[in-house]
């Protein structure tokens, strides 16, 4: 019985060996600040920049590795351009193979992250966001409700890259 208890304890402790509490970039939480500028919108989708900027700020606040700088210059500057917005049919109606009943929305932003202390560009790449919408009677309303979810997904992906980067 003691052996079984010993082996179970070892297995339980070994299972948690890779878990790390707190920021993954090695810096103390909140020791650096981040400033999020509005992105340039190079698509035809209106108001998407506001959704993305709000989502980026919210994600940085929730993640906690960086302090969000709202009135001044941060240590890290996040900016970029929204370069692609697309909707594609995912599933189609049973009696009409040309009319989608479900769409996948894709948003692509070119994200640039600059360390303002050193002037070094730490991230300069395209980041993707995706979400799915079910079309009811009103496609525009369904899309309007899905845009914040799409911006949240892109922001989660971008913030993950920033936090795990070398700053």
Secondary structure topology:
Layout: H1 2-15, E1 32-36, E2 40-41, H2 48-63, E3 66-68, E4 76-93, E5 96-115, E6 120-134, H3 139-163
Parallel strand pairs: 1-3, 1-4, 2-4
Antiparallel strand pairs: 4-5, 5-6
Helix pairs in contact: 2-3
**Beta strand %:** 35-45%
Distance between the termini: 50 Å
The name of the CATH topology is Double Stranded RNA Binding Domain
Percent in helix: 25-40%
Topology pattern, helix = H, strand = E: HEEHEEEEH
Question: Could you describe the 3D structure shown?
Answer:
It is built from three helices and six strands, in the order αββαββββα. With 167 residues, the protein is an alpha/beta fold. The protein has one domain (27-163): 2-Layer Sandwich (Double Stranded RNA Binding Domain). Strand 4 and strand 5 form a beta hairpin. The protein is flat.
Short description:
The protein has one domain: 2-Layer Sandwich (Double Stranded RNA Binding Domain), CATH 3.30.160.
Any key phrases for this structure?
167 residues, alpha/beta, Double Stranded RNA Binding Domain, six-stranded mixed β-sheet
């Amino acid at each position: 019985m003691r052996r079984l208890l010993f082996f179970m304890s070892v297995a339980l402790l070994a299972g948690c060996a890779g878990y790390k509490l707190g920021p993954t970039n090695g810096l103390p939480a909140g020791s650096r600040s981040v400033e999020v500028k509005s992105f340039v919108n190079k698509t035809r989708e209106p108001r998407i920049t506001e959704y993305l900027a709000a989502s980026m700020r919210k994600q940085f606040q929730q993640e906690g590795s960086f302090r969000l700088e709202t009135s001044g210059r941060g240590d890290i500057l996040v900016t970029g351009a929204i370069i692609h917005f697309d909707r594609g049919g995912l599933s189609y109606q049973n009696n009409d193979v040309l009319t989608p009943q479900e769409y996948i929305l894709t948003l692509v932003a070119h994200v640039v992250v600059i360390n303002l202390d050193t002037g070094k560009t730490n991230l300069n790449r395209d980041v993707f966001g995706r979400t799915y919408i079910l079309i009811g009677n009103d496609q525009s309303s369904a899309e309007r409700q899905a845009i914040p979810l799409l911006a949240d997904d892109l922001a989660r992906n971008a913030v993950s890259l920033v936090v795990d980067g070398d700053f």
